[in-house]
Write a structure and sequence with these properties.
CATH class: Alpha Beta
Keywords: 3Fe-4S, Electron transport, Iron, Iron-sulfur, Metal-binding, Transport
CATH topology: Alpha-Beta Plaits
InterPro entries: 3Fe4S_ferredoxin, Fe-S_cluster_ET
Order of helices and strands: EHEEEHE
Protein name: Ferredoxin
CATH architecture: 2-Layer Sandwich
GO molecular function, one term: iron ion binding
Helix content: 25-40%
Number of strands: 5
Largest sheet: 3 strands, antiparallel
Cofactor: [3Fe-4S] cluster
């Protein structure tokens, strides 16, 4: 399992994470990322990795 976290202080709402990984991330009322599924594996883990690698602010952290 991989743990997914978003640093809300860094996120400015580009939306790449919830576009690339809609099953893992969602948007709050301001367009900032929120985590829908905190512990991921398999296909969801790959989506989370894609989102982490494409976040301009590096607001997404994955840990094992």
């Amino acid at each position: 399992m991989t743990k997914v976290c978003v640093d809300s202080a860094l996120c400015v709402g580009h939306g790449r994470c919830y576009t690339l990984a809609p099953d893992v991330f969602d948007a709050d009322e301001y367009g900032h990322s929120i985590v829908r599924v905190a512990d991921v594996s398999g296909e969801l883990e790959q989506q989370a990795v894609d989102a982490e690698q494409n976040c301009p602010e590096r607001a997404i952290t994955l840990s094992h």
